[in-house]
Amino acid sequence: MSNSLPEEYEQEIQSPPAHHPSAPPHESFDISTTVDPSYVISLIRKLLPSNVQYGERATGRDLIREEANTEGRKEDESYQNHGTLNRPGSRDDNHNQGRSAGEETWEEGGCILWDLAASEDHAQFMVQNLILEVLSANLAVSQSSRITEIGLGIIGNLACHEIPRKQIASTTGLVGVIVEQLLLDDVPCLCEACRVLTLCLQGGEGVIWAEALQAEHILSRILWIAENALNPMLLEKSVGLLLAVLESEQEVAAILLPPILKLDISNLLIKLLAFEMNKLKGERTPERYTVLDLILRAIEVLSTMDKYSQEICLNKELLQLVKELIEFPDKFEVSSSCVTAVVLLANILTDAPSATFELSQDLNFLEGVFNVFPFASDDAEAQSAIWSVIARLLTLVQESEMSLSIFHFLVSILASKLDLIEDETLVRPCSETDARIIAMKRISDILMQWKLSDGRVKDTSSMEDDSIDEETVDKLLEICQKATRLTA
After folding, report:
1. Radius of gyration (Cα) for the chain, nearest Å?
2. Average pLDDT value over all residues in the chain
3. pLDDT average, residue stretch 339-357
4. In this predicted structure, which of 25-34, 180-189, 355-364 has the lowest mean pLDDT?
5. Rounded to whole angstroms, how far apart are CA atoms 55 and 145?
6. Which of 37, 71, 287, 305 is deepest in the core (most CB within 10 A)?
7. pLDDT of 97
8. Is 72 left (phi over 0), alpha (psi -120 to 50) or beta?
9. HEC string for 465-478
């Protein structure tokens, strides 16, 4: 993001308001900024709580899934400008009505500072000039949702930078005040609160934040928000916060994981995954794709935890949902989610091998797994997971017992992956314990069975829409046999 301010503020930068005089000429600043330091200080002064006329907070606006009369309820669209660094535009609700001149001044100055905080130099300068203390005082007393949102937004941008993030954690009372904002019912405020907490949990001061979040009513509130959010952005931010908890460093995890797992986060995530899959099969809303990926990543983390993996891996609903996503025809739209789904599936099949047999009987699913490969080209871990799944599936395939048409379909799938398999052997040499070797040995066996089969099988191919190129079969067989010989 550019460090320059919007055009409408350029004149103000050159000539600060008379009632906010410039800093004395002898005053020195430790940090160089592209904006007049005295102007930044004047903006911070505008945020002092005495300048604010507090209105009423918005309550429950499009956040809660009510028990009754939920049909026809539409998602909140008032929080569209939700960039992680850019300030939002004015709200579309009635918050402008009855506002004082002081509150309008506060909003104007706060939005400029929200933009400025995206720059590390500006952020450090703002922290040096007590922006955190001023915002803490506002959050503690403000009854205006808009002021709370802007205050949290500024802190969120400050938290993107290491030094300001440390200052946030060490500012007296600020951590507790930010955590308390989770108890609000205003969508934009909750989005910004979750963003701040996510960023700060990932920093070196994560233990401080974990201790503030560990109370059962706070963790329950986060789960409740994720379960009941109607706004896609709020769902994204709340699930992102849950993912940050699950992926946290060991000291942070020791504080937060036991209580949050006790609150049955796994069932909540599977429930959210089912909801997003229904959306994907219907509306295909791009703004929900990130939510889908975050949910899958959170479940994938749970599947690697020794004490909790069994609960994930033995869940039949989860296995079906993952299968549906891997078989999804338009993978390009949700490519990242498909890759995560295969990694998750590899974990599931490791702990629950009994699920492999049923999957191995579905050749469309095998093809779906192969089709995820192009989206994992730069992820060695994901590629290994894909080969692990393919190896497990092919090991249980019984080509000798297949009907002629199904056998033809299996060979056509393998032949169509010639380029992919050839590239794999060229880019990454195979080792003896590599899942690729197991998979290629099985591919070799299947192709040999095809080559040695009687004419009835090959005649079947002439009746199919997709005929099998025997030269392609021969080349793939040679590649697989060569790879297995090299590791023998």
Report:
1. 28
2. 81
3. 91
4. 25-34
5. 8
6. 37
7. 55
8. left
9. CCCCCHHHHHHHHH
User: DSSP assignment, residue 287?
Assistant: G
Mean pLDDT calculated for residue range 303-323? 88
Distance (Å, rounded) from C-alpha 320 to C-alpha 46?
A: 55
Residue with tokens 């989005």: 191
Burial of 161 (0-12, 13-18, 19+ CB in 10 A): buried
Residue 9 has a pLDDT of: 39
- The single residue listed with the structure tokens 């993001």 is 1
Residue 8 identity (one-letter amino acid): E
**Angle 265-282/289-302 helices, nearest 10 degrees?**
150
Q: Considering only CA atoms, which of 155, 177, 175, 176 is closest in space to residue 164?
A: 155
Cα–Cα dist 118/55, whole Å: 28
CA dist 451 and 475 (Å) reads 12
Q: What is the spatial distance between Cα 21 and Cα 26, in angstroms, rounded to a whole number? A: 14
Q: Which of 104, 112, 87 is nearest to 16 (CA)?
A: 112
Rounded to whole angstroms, the Cα distance separating 326 from 119 reads 40
Matching residue, tokens 């005040």:
177
* CA angle, 414 then 418 then 423, to 5°: 130
CB 87 within 8 A of CB 111: yes
Which residues contact residue 167 at a Cβ distance below 8 angstroms, ignoring those fewer than 6 apart? 127, 132, 158
Check residue 56 and report its DSSP letter: P
CA nearest neighbour of 129 among 154, 101, 156, 160: 154
Q: What is the three-class DSSP state of 20?
A: coil
What's the pLDDT tens digit per position in 136-152? 999 998 888 999 999 99
Dmax of the chain from CA atoms? Answer: 96
Sign, CA torsion 140/144/147/148: positive
Confirm whether pTM is higher than 0.85.
no
Model confidence at 65: pLDDT above 50: no
CA trace torsion 299, 303, 307, 311 (10° rounding) = 70
Type of residue at 297? R
Residue 223 CB partners (closer than 8 Å, separation 6+): 242, 260, 263, 265, 268
- pLDDT at residue 436 in the model: 86
The amino acid at residue 322 is V
Q: How far is the CA of 209 from the CAs of 44, 173, 241, in angstroms?
A: 26, 12, 12
Dihedral sign for Cα 25, 29, 32, 36, please: negative
Reduced to 3 DSSP states, what percent helix, strand and coil does the chain have, rounded to the nearest 5? 70, 0, 30
Residue 93 structure tokens: 């609700």
Tokens of 126: 């703002």
Question: Exposed e or buried b for every residue in 189-199, given b needs 16+ CB within 10 A?
Answer: bbbbbbbbbbb
Residue 428 above 50 pLDDT?
yes
Instruction: Please check the confidence at residue 374 and state whether its pLDDT lies above 60.
Output: yes
